[in-house]
UniProtKB/TrEMBL annotation:
PANTHER family referenced in this protein's UniProt entry, alphabetically: NUCLEOTIDE KINASE (PTHR23359)
Designated name of the protein: Adenylate kinase
Binding site for ATP: 10-15, 123, 132-133, 203
Main location group: cytoplasm
Keywords per UniProt: ATP-binding, Cytoplasm, Kinase, Nucleotide biosynthesis, Nucleotide-binding, Transferase
Annotated gene: adk
Native species: Glaciimonas soli
Entry's localization field: Cytoplasm
Annotated domain remarks: Consists of three domains, a large central CORE domain and two small peripheral domains, NMPbind and LID, which undergo movements during catalysis. The LID domain closes over the site of phosphoryl transfer upon ATP binding. Assembling and dissambling the active center during each catalytic cycle provides an effective means to prevent ATP hydrolysis.
One Pfam family, short name: ADK_lid
Binding site residues for AMP: 31, 36, 57-59, 85-88, 92, 156, 167
Length: 218
């Protein structure tokens, strides 16, 4: 299984990725998680990316494309992969097409902007694993602690309301074009075209998981 999860910031890509990667036994390639790891490690990439991310803008295409191409060379990608938060621009999508990176499904998770701000303000994450919770909608078993490791949960720097508003604007200006990009490709019936599936991301997490699994079955 090789798939792209497409959706606005806070649509639930990371949340659903946890279920999908387990079901299909594939690695989750989250460019956001990779960048946050680089920031934490203080690498040159991390130092360059931090300002851009904290403002809610996009890191340059060249950097992101390089990161993903390197990641795809690792042996765990042989069985498939799940892209979370990538591609995010037309040049990123073109780069994957040009490199012949196969995609079976593009799964769009649709959530209206109004619901996003509340989701972001209550989000808590476990940086080491990328696991995501919400204080109200998807709370951890023990408040403030990761379910698996018991380690401390944190709030992301870019989850402030102002930054979230900018991230939504960036999504509409630069990423939403990929809905038509992949939708049209899917409709073209060309060899190697992915299947395009759209599900609602509003409702209980488990209900959305079930719609995602159904969408990926046919
Ligand atoms: P990235 O980490 O990719 O962030 P994003 O796309 O903005 O998406 P999020 O992680 O915020 O949301 P999500 O859809 O994963 O939602 P989640 O499951 O966590 O990118 C961060 C930054 O890195 C970018 O701004 C950019 O600077 C840079 N970057 C990354 N990739 C890049 C690229 N390809 N090119 C250039 N720059 C790049 O859920 C959100 C919250 O809602 C959680 O609290 C969750 O518990 C809750 N929730 C989930 N599902 C539900 C539900 N059904 N009901 C209620 N609450 C729910
Ligand atoms: Zn995410």
């Amino acid at each position: 299984m090789r798939l792209i999860l497409l959706g606005a910031p806070g649509a639930g890509k990371g949340t659903q990725a946890t279920f999908i990667k387990e079901k299909f036994n594939i690695p989750q390639i989250s460019t956001g998680d990779m960048l946050r790891a680089a920031v934490k490690a203080g690498t040159p990439l991390g130092l360059a990316a931090k300002k851009v991310m904290d403002a809610g803008n996009l890191v340059s295409d060249d950097i992101i494309i390089g990161l993903v191409k390197d990641r795809l060379k690792e042996p765990d990608c042989a069985n498939g992969y799940l892209f979370d938060g990538f591609p995010r621009t037309t040049p990123q999508a073109d780069a994957m097409k040009d490199a012949g990176v196969a995609i079976d499904y593009v799964l769009e998770i649709d959530v209206p902007d109004e619901a996003i701000i509340e989701r972001m303000s209550g989000r808590r994450t476990h940086p080491a694993s990328g696991r995501t919770y919400h204080v109200k909608f998807n709370p951890p078993k023990v408040e403030g602690k990761d379910d698996v490791t018991g380690e401390e949960l944190i709030q992301r720097e870019d989850d402030k309301e102002e930054t979230v508003k900018n991230r939504l604007a960036v999504y509409h200006n630069q990423t939403k074009v990929l809905v038509d990009y992949y939708g049209d490709w899917a409709k073209s019936g060309q060899p190697g075209a992915p299947k395009y599936r759209k599900i609602s991301g509003v409702g209980p997490v488990e209900q959305i998981r079930d719609s995602a699994f159904t969408a990926l079955e046919n």
